[in-house]
Amino acid sequence: MIRPAATMAYVSRSVDWHGGWADRGRRIAAAPRAPAVAGALLGLLAVAELIARLVLDPGSIGRLAAAGSVTRAASTGGGTHIARTASAGVNTQTVVVLCLLCLFTTLPLVFLRPAAAAVAVSAASVLSLALFQMLTVAGVGAQLIVLYRLGHSGLKHRGSQLLAVLLSGPFLVLALAAPAGGEAWVLTVLLASLAPAAALAGIARRARSEAVVHSAARQVIAGTLLEHTARGERARIVRELHDVVAHHISMVAVQAETARLTTAGMPAAGAQRLSAIGDTARAALTEMRRLLGVLREDAKTDAADRRPQPGLRQLNDLLDAARDASAAGTRLIVRGPPATLDPGVELAAYRIVQEALTNSRRHAPGAAVDVELHYADDALELRIRDNGPGPPDTPPAGGHGLLGMRERAAAVGGELRTGPAVGGGFLIEASLPGKGETAG
User: Fold this and answer.
1) Cα–Cα distance measured from residue 3 to residue 10, given in angstroms and rounded to the nearest whole number
2) Among the residues of 298-329, which ranges form H helices?
3) Is there a smaller number of Cβ atoms within 10 Å at the N or the C end of the chain?
4) Residue pair 236/221 in contact by the 8 Å Cβ criterion
């Protein structure tokens, strides 16, 4: 009784064996010198086959010479007289011509490119069949190889594909014109049947290879686009967390500290709780800056988020919230007729002001802040100035506020400058594209 497990193991080993041989065969066929080696071996086999025929059948040389004489006489119109005896000189010439034809039907694989080799081998095979009604088995193999190579190498050149198919046509004509019977007729019919199939197989193999390459390229492009999309989304999340969440957490810390210092008669426990709230908010800001640093390293992109989120119309609410949180003077100064700008430009301006107010509360608590909007013909000039101590001598480690503002300005085609203000304090200047419609 045959066990199923043993049967499956045998089938698996058989499949692995056949698959291993198929892989080795493909690697050998794809080797650069494979056509040259195949041509040399086929040439030797063709000559050996011819010599074996002459040795085993000495009378065949006379028949081949007679076939050549008939063909030459028919082509020159000199009658149909056939010499009944062939001299030694004629036989020697016939053997030499046949050896040369055997070599010409195989050796072009060694020296010539696919198109030239296909033409040379096909011409020699047709001459051998037409003049002497003789073709070696090695010549048949070489013919199929050159047509396959021509079809496989010519996908980018439609003329090569057409040539591969056309070179198989003469064998069909010879098969229909030659008398039935005999080894030469069998080989001619075989070539007429297999030559188009070899050419089409080469074309199909090349098309499949190109399809695999194109599929791999599409997968790489799709993966790259997906990666860029993911990086852009991470960069957007970084900006939103830094500009929105960090802004509100900073306000919580400032409000807790302000309430602790300005509320008269507060019990010690209440003051302690407010102080703990402020410490917790500052710790949250520190952890958020660390997280944003990790995200920013993996999401370096200049992509802009142009969705119609907060714009310049919401600046008054932002300044009111900042004024209430810090109990410091905050003014909005508008120059020129207000205009409705691109939503991306308005969002960038809003986020720059929001981050500037957050930085002012963090590094210059209690300082007054002036926010100035200047609507020019083709630009929006934005200035945020506080009267604090000015920029620190060494930038704080892990800060992303100024970098985020520069990224937002650059994303909409603008630029941003920061530095000490004349007369003291810190100044942020941004120039953003301002083409838009004047607000009514």
Assistant:
1) 11
2) 315-326
3) N
4) no
- Nearest Cα neighbor of 256 from 320, 325, 323 is 325
Buried b vs exposed e over 268-279: b needs ≥16 C-beta within 10 Å?
eeeeeebeebbe
Integer Rg of the chain from CA? 44
* Residue 4 pLDDT: 53
Residues 6 or more apart in contact with residue 26 via CB below 8 angstroms? none
**Domain spans in the chain, listed from the N-terminal domain onward:** 1-30, 33-221, 305-440
Contact between 146 and 122 under an 8 Å Cβ cutoff? The reply is yes
Q: Which CATH class name applies to 305-440?
A: alpha beta
pLDDT of residue 38: 79
Q: 3-state DSSP call for residue 52?
A: helix
pLDDT at 416: 93
Report pLDDT for 384.
93
Q: Residue 323's pLDDT is what?
A: 81
Averaged over successive runs of 10 residues, the pLDDT of the chain (440 residues) comes to 53 53 56 74 84 74 58 45 42 79 83 83 84 81 85 65 79 78 78 84 83 84 82 74 72 77 79 82 75 64 49 86 78 88 87 88 84 89 88 61 82 88 89 67
Q: Strands of 379-386's sheet, edge to edge?
A: 330-335, 369-375, 379-386, 426-433, 415-420
Both tokens assigned to 22? 């198929």
Note the residue count of the chain. 440
H/E stretch holding 170 reads helix 169-177
C-beta separation of 58 from 88 below 8 A: no
Neighbour tally for 5: CB within 10 Å: 8
Q: Which residues contact 275 (CB under 8 A, 6 or more apart)?
A: 256, 257, 260
User: Which two structure tokens, joined as six digits, stand for 154?
Assistant: 């010519």
CB-based contact 49:137 (threshold 8 Å):
yes
- pTM here is 0.44
